[in-house]
Design brief:
This protein is an all-alpha fold. It has one domain. It is about 70% helix and about 0% strand. The chain has three helices and no strands. The longest helix is centred in the first third of the chain and has 46 residues. The radius of gyration is 24 Å and the shape is rod-shaped. About 0% of the residues are buried.
Length: about 80
């Protein structure tokens, strides 16, 4: 293998790695965007429920966003475990 061929293969490998990283970044961005859209739909749906319906599923209006995103400590059991 000549030096030129080696340099060409090295650059081709670099370009492939760079393209792979770009594709992974785009996919991660798309997944994050899809998750946020799903969260917004769920939040909107829960906000459309009346207080009685929310109480039936065990949350208050103040807990809606945390319940959807899984960040509300009040919704967790002992030692922060998920129900």
């Amino acid at each position: 293998m000549t030096t030129f061929e080696h340099a060409y293969q090295h650059r081709a490998g670099f370009a492939a790695r760079l393209a792979n990283l770009a594709a992974e970044a785009a996919l991660a961005c798309w997944r994050r965007s899809a998750r946020r859209r799903q969260e917004r739909r769920a939040i909107a749906h829960l906000r459309s429920l009346n207080d009685r319906a929310l109480a039936d599923i065990g949350i208050t209006r103040a807990q809606i966003v945390g319940a959807v995103r899984g960040t509300d400590a009040d919704l967790r059991g002992p030692r922060g475990a998920r129900r």
